[in-house]
Amino acid sequence: MKESRKADMNANSSSTNLIYKLYLFNTADRIAAIAIAVFVVLFFASSTVLAGTSLPKTPSGREDYYKFLGIDVSEWQGDINWNGIKADGVDYAFIRAGATTSSSFDLKEDRKFDINMQGSGSAGVARGLYWYSQATTEEEAVAEAKKLVAQAKKYDVELPLVMDLEFSNGRFDKAYNSWRARGSAYARQRMTSVAEAFLSYCRSQGYLASIYLSTSLAGSFSGVDTKSLADNSYEVWVAHYSNELSAYPEYNVWQFTSTGRMQGIKGNVDCDAMYVDKSARKAGNPGLDAEPANTMVRYTGAPATTNVNVSDNGKALTLNKDYTVSYMNNNGKGTAYALIKGKGTYVGYTEVFPYQIGDEELLHSADLEPSQAVTGIKNGKTYVKFTAAGGDVDDYRIEYRNDDSEEWKAVRTGGKAEYALDGQYKQIRVSAVVGGQLYGMALPDNSQKYEIIDGSVESDYRLGGKALCNRDKFKKINKEVSEDVVI
């Protein structure tokens, strides 16, 4: 996690040489050339500050994942304009809480930690924390983790606490070399044990925990056993400076460059890609249920959020104690995302909810949505009945299938709030059609034996001209649907 100023030096050197050569021209040519030189200088200045780094090519195996852009920073980035960071499309940041010196086991807090936490929080950037580790024993790892947790307790932290494990030509390197001298298996066992000591302490204090390391350490026979950590619901963050990443199935976050450029930061910054499976992970808690308070939020020019309520078998859970919420892609109009991560008892639970940010037309679109759909099976037909939308709509569309492996089929009702489908179908959803766009989605409460689908499934629905992602969350019903639906 180091920065480089080579781009700045090259830009400044090129600009200086160009200005120097201007003196070889006559006065008229000199004036014209000066104007060009000023443009070049301004171009270099703006391109190094305003051109934000974007997400890399999606790695193999992460095509059906949500993808979010982030950075990681420390005191070495100097003063940061966090509003500029958010405006450049950055959704989260891992902020250094401190570091252990390489020559002796001395724990030092990052000088910019508090100001970075305050600035990022005010700008709406989700935060995780990391500690630059040089631990060589389990006891040292716990000591580092305690310092990190103490820093974390001063703020609401949405993302994991991270052990940043790196070589630095110091005592940690010497310890690793001595372990390797006893064989790769021994080195792997020692590295993993030290890492587990750090991560397990963070978890014992109610926090999500993750490890940061290079792909060489993650993939080495003498490195950390990241698979065992991932199997224990610890997250893995790998550094690999390339256009592609492969062969590391356990990772959640990929640090893809150390020379990124963002508004609000002078010089280079590490940039990261976070990948979140679109299927919700309940982590052994099937009773978990989360719902956003609003799926449509007014755009005001500032990052827009929506409250998310999470319950366990009907019992309301507590934000920042049982779960955290991070808001992604919520700067402008369109589809934003609420990323929910379980804490404490619920560690390992992850779910993403899409919601819409738009204008007044979007907010009033609820008048165009059907509701209260019910279905029934009778005489080989599936009967569908629903409450019509309150506003004027052109038509209604019913989609149907038997399980999530099938493609949806669709039929229009001719404006009626009732319809009989030929055949028996277990999954039904109803939407209104207005001006060629689909609004809302009504899911029947009593459909026959719905299968459990925990994921957020992207659909082709439109709302206010913007793409809308809809959840198909079907409840399992252990009895046949009654046939009392009268059409």
Automatic annotation (TrEMBL):
Keywords: Glycosidase, Hydrolase, Membrane, Transmembrane, Transmembrane helix. Pfam families: Glyco_hydro_25 (PF01183). One of its GO terms (molecular function) is lysozyme activity. One of its GO terms (biological process) is cell wall macromolecule catabolic process. InterPro entries: FN3_dom, GH, Glyco_hydro_25, Glyco_hydro_fam25_subgr. It comes from the Bacteria. The chain crosses the membrane at residues 31-52. CDD domains: FN3 (cd00063). PANTHER family: LYSOZYME (PTHR34135:SF2). Belongs to the glycosyl hydrolase 25 family. This is Lyzozyme M1 (1,4-beta-N-acetylmuramidase), GH25 family. It comes from Mogibacterium timidum.
